[in-house]
Write a structure and sequence with these properties.
TPR repeats lie at residues 426-459. The protein is mainly α. The chain is 64% helix and 5% strand.
Length: 532
């Protein structure tokens, strides 16, 4: 059976590569494949704003290690800032196929990695796979994008077992169930799927569910098996280290993280975790190396922060406890230099002053300087009171000193957490969606209305605009009618849950009346006139 022919004419594609020749070559490859709506640019910090403000369907991101801002940094920061939308597809392109770079890129979870140079046939194969996958999973991923996890769970049921995306859909479903607090249900479904398919990503998610259910021995056994079969599955090392720590086995946790950072040394969060566990287990040389590496890596990273300076200063404090007088003086100077460097490099971080005062007070306590202890404690309290969100000083003191920190009460799941809203951006991209709709570019209109909801999940105008688009699509597309009507009902349900003004309430009521009509009986063309 011949593979389906993919139409790229309605896809909004961004090509990012700092090499002019390579960018030009890939540009014409994409044109040859039928991509019409295509923007090409060099790698720079501006790319992040483009991704944030525009609803791209596919992003091809090139990496060159010698660039001032590399593709790996853009990918990492896009994931860190939440700019990687579930419905968008990412292809990471690099001529550097080294293990450390590839594993670092995998941490940010692009859809595909493509080694440069590549042929137009290779590019087409990846794009075809990506578009087919995104098309199948679109109802699921769009529901995730707007924060409706219950709808995403329901949408996964519509994907048949025979579909190539079925396993991924089931993992998405399990991820949503875990985030909704239904971990036992997720675990049961994942266990059935894993023992049938033996997929490493399913196994990794199952191990996370087992950890949340405090089935630590089962999680440990599963993770050890995954690592034996997939020695470069770094996320399994990360989770196994947490299991060891939960079991009180700090030595094993440290050694697991050491192995992970040797295989994948470019990730700052993993290096910082190694430093923390090494400090708690009194392996100060290992902690020192991890924090120094974090400082170097942080020079051009979204994870750049004063934390590794502070933690390394604490290592120097701990080293002083067993040092002779001469070495103590050297360590004290290094301690002060690290805190001064932190304050110099991060002058606008108000919390840094609190933490510096806590550490200085800790050192004064080690040296028996009670007056200095009191002075620094008062200084920390004064700085802390000036913060918009004051810290728990006792807990912050434990974190900085490398001591074991009590477990906090369970935090709200993403579905329960307060949603950050940007009404101004929501209105802006909603207007762009209307512009595309009026121009007959319905796919792009759908993307922009979805992006408006991402900026403000409580923006009813965009919700109703999407409902209208899907109702028109259900009317005009018999083959996908049932799927489209489910989307209509979903957006109507979300709209009804919001406080509405009189105009929007009138439009919603009119919409509900139209929804009661047989789909074939709806008037042809735009329904906008009826919904005004």
């Amino acid at each position: 059976m011949a593979p389906p022919k993919i139409d790229y004419s309605d896809k909004n594609v961004l090509l990012v590569d700092s090499s002019g020749n390579m960018r030009s070559t890939i540009f014409y490859m994409l044109r040859e494949l039928g991509v019409q709506n295509l923007r090409a640019t060099t790698v720079s910090e501006r790319v992040l704003e483009m991704i944030r403000e525009e609803a791209f369907d596919i992003i091809l991101l090139g990496h060159n290690s010698s660039d001032m801002v590399s593709g790996a940094q853009i990918l990492e920061e896009a994931r860190y800032r939440g700019y990687i939308r579930p419905t968008a597809g990412w292809i990471f392109m690099t001529s550097d196929a080294s293990q450390e770079l590839v594993l670092h890129a995998i941490d940010s979870r692009p859809d595909f990695l493509l080694t440069k140079p590549f042929s137009v046939e290779e590019l087409k194969q990846r794009l075809d796979q990506l578009v087919l996958r995104k098309r199948t999973l679109f109802p699921v991923e769009q529901a995730i994008e707007i924060g409706d996890l219950e709808a995403a769970v329901d949408a996964c049921r519509d994907i048949p077992r025979s579909d190539p995306c079925y396993e991924q859909a089931m993992r998405l479903r399990a991820r949503c169930l875990i985030d909704l607090g239904r971990t036992q249900q997720a675990c049961e479904e994942l266990e059935r799927q894993y023992w049938k398919d033996d997929d490493k990503d399913t196994g990794l998610l199952l191990a996370e569910a087992l950890c949340r259910l405090e089935r630590l021995s089962d999680a440990e056994e599963l993770l050890n098996g995954l690592i034996e079969s997939h020695p470069l599955l770094i996320a399994a090392f990360d989770l196994l280290a947490k299991v060891h720590e939960s079991n009180g086995m700090l030595h094993d946790a440290r050694e697991t993280l050491k192995e992970a950072t040797q295989k994948a040394p470019l990730g700052i969060p993993r290096q910082m975790e190694l430093g923390r566990v090494a400090t708690q287990s009194k392996a100060l040389e290992t902690a020192e190396g991890a924090y120094k590496r974090s400082i170097v890596l942080g020079r051009r990273s979204c994870f750049r922060s004063p934390e590794p300076f502070l933690r390394l200063a604490n290592v120097r404090r701990l080293e002083m406890q067993g040092a002779d007088a001469r070495r103590s003086i050297e360590l004290r100077n290094e301690f002060d230099t690290l805190l001064n460097n932190a304050e110099y490099n991060f002058p606008k971080d108000p919390a840094l002053k609190v933490k510096s005062a806590l550490l200085r007070g800790k050192l004064a306590g080690d040296l028996g300087e009670e007056d200095e202890v009191n002075r620094f404690q008062k200084e920390a309290q004064r700085y802390n009171q000036a913060l918009d969100n004051p810290m728990d000083l006792a807990r912050a003191d434990l974190v900085l000193s490398g001591d074991k920190v009590p477990v906090l009460e369970p935090q709200p799941t993403p579905a329960q957490s307060a949603v950050r809203r940007d009404a101004e951006m929501a209105a802006k991209v909603n207007r762009l969606g209307i512009k595309h709709y009026m121009a007959g570019k319905l796919s792009q209109a759908t993307r922009y209305f979805g992006l408006a909801i991402e900026y403000d999940p409580g923006y009813p105008v965009a919700l109703l605009n999407l409902a209208q688009l899907y109702l028109e699509s259900a009317r005009d597309n018999v083959n996908r009618r049932e799927e489209r009507l489910k989307m209509v009902d979903r957006y109507l349900r979300l709209t009804q849950q919001l406080p509405l003004d009189a105009t929007t309430t009138e439009r919603l009521n009119r919409f509900k009346e139209l929804r009661q009509l047989p789909v074939d009986g709806l008037p042809a063309g735009s329904l906008a006139v009826l919904l005004r």
